[in-house]
Amino acid sequence: MGQCVRLTEETKKIIGIQYSKGEAMSTLLFWATGNRQQATGNRQQATGNRQQATGNRQQATGNRQQAWLQKHRLTRWLAKLFVALSLVVSGEALAEVETVPPVQKWAVANGVNSLWNFNFYQLSKSEACLFFYNTWVVNAGYPPHTYIGDNGTYCRWTNFFDHLGIAAQQGIYWSKYDCPDPNVNPDVPYTYRPATNTCERELKYKLTLTPDSATIEPGQSYEFTATVTTLDDKQPGISVPVSVKAEVEANSGGHDHGEKVAKRDKGKVSPANGSNSFQINFTSTQVSGIHTITATCDQCVNKTAVAKVNVMVASLETIPSSAFYAFIGGEEDKPHHDNHYLTPAAAERLLVMAINYRSQQRFKVLDWNTNIRVTPSVLHVNDASLMWGGRFDIKANWTNPHITHMRGIEVDIRANDEVGAIDARNFKAFEKMLDDVVGGKTGRAKYLLECTADKPGSLLKHERKAENLCISRLTLSPDTNRHYHIRLIGAK
Amino acid sequence: MITAQLKTATKTEPTILSKNKLIENWIIRYTYTLSNGSKAKQPIEDVMFRGLPPKANILNSLVITGSDNSNLIEFFESSLAVPNNQWYGSGARHQEELIIGWHYSADSFDPQLGLQPGASLKGFGFNSIDLPGVWIAQIVGNVGYHHFQPLYENDSDVDELMSEIEYNDFVPRNVAAPMISVSAPFDPAIVMENIRTHVATWPGKQLAEAAFAAQLDLNLQAAANAYRTNQPEAAKGYIEILLDMIRRDHKDIDREDDEDNDGKNDSQKTNTQHLTIDRLAARVLDFDLKYVLKRMRHEGEENDGKKSKDKESRKER
Ligand SMILES: [Zn+2]
Ligand SMILES: [Zn+2]
User: Fold this and answer.
1) Which CATH number fits domain B1-181: 2.60.60.30, 2.60.40.2230, 1.10.340.30, 2.120.10.30?
2) Interface confidence: ipTM more than 0.90
3) Contact A428 B92 (CB under 8 A)
4) In contact, A143 and A163? CB cutoff 8 Å
5) Quick check: B64 contacting A, CB < 8 Å?
6) Which residue in A126, A154, A370, B75 has a CA-CA distance of 20 to 30 Å to A408?
């Protein structure tokens, strides 16, 4: 009885009041409790009559139901199709509405001045009652009277027209619905919807990409997770589209190609499009570098989320300098100016190799001029691996790599006719020394005497001959690029 | 794509004779005579001992020390005797094994170079304080230069298979090698246990019959226990039993061979009879057991204020 009943539009018309948005009257005005009860009785009877009428209608409804359902299914299907088509055509994303219950606020009026104090709404009936009493009854300057307060149904005080036989006067309650201030994303207020008595706003989302960074080896893949949630970390009720792309930092990973915009393969992301929460597989190329995965969500407040992927062979270190070898290649102005990286274990093997070469009597070779056997020059160490390993594209074109040279376990040693090269007379002994030092458990070192990598079948191709020379079949010129390519340690 | 051409496997018919001789200060001289078969198709260019115990002792090696006093590298060139200056020794000590060997010193990849078919060379050797055991020498024929060695980004299955093929590209021959460490100070119980541990590997290598090896094991254990419990006479008794066991198949095993014989004579007659123990293994064990007896006798004489000037030599095949 004392409950506040929200008025339907129909009722509002009946009572003839145009309410402002969110306002409703709790009950009709009744000055006497008795009158009100009578009215309620009348209403109940009317409801009974209506129920009977509904019963009569039910039979007819049953007959029509089947045909209606069929027709309705078709309609619904067409409606869905329309929605789908309009989505395709417009490209507009579906929006989701966040709904919260409104806050009901109370005010008291005495009927005569009922609209006077509509702005003085309070959060509870009792507060509203006291407020009304203090601001209207007392301030009105009427003769003394006493505050009684809220009895659940009315706001009451002693009536100054006591002598007329009415024990107390009472105000009736009015209420309106306000929307609460949003806890999350307070910049976007709720809007009250009288039709549903709800507070609504368009739901906003946020996008995260986890983890936000990863380190993988060249050619490896990694799974990231894109997640769209509401701002209060709940799952969206609709499909929120997300697109994904991979990028790569120019000149990263030891490839100082002098690019303003990275021209290399950026790696693959799959899928490139998804929604809400989904796995993103990033597959890197064989080239090391800093990649970024960017997920974009137009409906999200943060629009994009970025994860960083370091594509690298970890734990490579610059080869320590030593009196037993010298470095060549990797000049400052070259795209790959840091070409002397190895794993510590491989660097140690290189040193042992170099010490053997310098110290074994066997490697002393006859100096043609003095006719004295002399200690050979220290090993001249050319390309090993780049700082982060990965494909070593000698020509800085992202292709034509060195054979291997990716994992910091291989090195090139000069073996041509240049200064510091291994003398061809030492090749055989050098290869046998490699077997001892880097041969591992098989006792057979892995190495190549490499010649310039010309096109296979080309007449200019330099081939290793039994006499250890890379000779051009056409020109018979020696190969100035001849070198030993040596695997210093087993892979992995 | 890298194509690999498999080189033909070594085609040599080698024999290698091992000899051990106890010289002064309990140093054992290991010497080898290498022969290529007369019908061999290639000269021999390497004799390699791979997989020796990582701490195996080779005397007179040269050690280079790093700035932090750790051993950077050990050279065996100076410690490995060669027949002539056409050969050189080399090696490397790794955490898991010691590698030593001799290579024909070639300035080119000429496949004609090396120990020719039908030829024989003595003078390969080194000194060690470790006792001989039986190990495998890898004898490699000269196949010219190494063809393309396949190199893949990672060690793929193909790569492993290639390594396996390469690895088996030698002819294996049993040799006496420093497999058994001698404790310092000398402790006969520990040395007997070390001998026992090594002998236990023989049945698996067809160097001794299982039943015979089991008998050897029992007596080796008994001798070790006797030394441990300070009963040298009892230990000596077990060692005598062991020496008798060895003589059953190889009666002349303790004969003092002269330098030029290399024990070839006695290998002939044993071919026809059923053997419980390989002749090289028998010689090695005979040497090791007598070393222990000799050393124990010496320790006793030391205590008596005497000094032994005995030298004993043994030949192994
Ligand atoms: Zn590059
Ligand atoms: Zn290379």
Assistant:
1) 2.60.40.2230
2) no
3) no
4) no
5) yes
6) B75
